[in-house]
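Title: Request for sanity check on ABC transporter ATP-binding protein prediction

Description:
We are preparing a figure and want to confirm that the structure record we downloaded matches what your pipeline produces today. Could someone re-run it with the sequence below and paste the raw structure tokens into this thread? We only need the token string, no images.
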Amino acid sequence: MARLTIDNLRKAFAGTVAVDDFSLDVADGELVCLLGPSGSGKSTVLRMIGGFEQPSSGAIRIDGQDVTRLSPERRPTGMVFQSHALWSHMNVFNNIAFGLKLRRLSRAEIRDKVEHALELVGLAGYGTRQTFQLSGGQQQRVALARSLVLEPKILLLDEPFASLDQHLRERLREEVRDIQQRLGITTLFVTHGQDEALAMADRIVVLRNGQCEQADAPDVVYRNPQTQFVAGFIGQMNFISASVEGGRFLHPDFMLPVNVPDGPAVLAVRPEALDLASAQADQGAIVLRSTDFGSHIMVDLQLRDGTRLKAMTAPDQRWQKRASVHLNVGQFALYRDNHLLTIGQPVGGSEQAPEVEPALSV
């Protein structure tokens, strides 16, 4: 196991800043997911850790040793790429053994280590096969084995499942997580898939424009997003824009008591925090459609000002198109200029907006 320390990392390409003042400590055996949209800098951070990109400034240390200027082969890291990067002219055994041969190990040592790596990734007996005879998932297992056989201190995974179908992606991420926990290897995993991050990570680091927006455990990032960007990027989120005056969030359809300073604000509510109740015609929100996902019903709604929302309800509930409903809000967050103002549950309920019928009971 190993500890990774990143201090004030910065990378610019021809004047364009890809990573800006990024710092992170990764504990022994921890799996950290770098999550963000395309262009957020997550893969650039990973490539700098692996030595495939040189930082413009900052430092990278593994177990206290500065590896910032070391070449990839001199770093105690192993990297698995999205494209597998297997050699098609070599069979599976030789693909995995390549790095060991460069280290001039004996044939017996190489054979034992390769067979162990194949067994570890569930490909025992596949050594003589050609890589083009393997499925995409099997090729990715070979790429993982090729990294693990070198016994790196830090494992780096750059969107390794992006080219695979959903069911295979889900199965492989469970297998990789099991292997990582069994070996206790410190791992950084780059993805733009929030489901992968929530399912695999001990900690999620959300990046935006080369900077860290939030770094926390998955449940904290989901339930307590510290910026509006994180709230919208992790899971589904409803946003309602209005203003706060005198301790109340004032929307044309409802009032919500909040203890924040006056000014414009954005209310954020997850679909599962919205309960629906039937309302009289022309009151509350309008049902646009409902979709049955088996485990739940997702209801698409529209407020009278045109704001679109989603609510998650029990699978035995049915909602007619164009029906009017009241929304009962559970946990919510309030943001201003991307910064968190408060997270909480409504206290005392909502109040009727002046000169309009109440549209939301909170």
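Thanks, this matches our download. The domain at 4-228 is CATH 3.40.50.300 (Rossmann fold).
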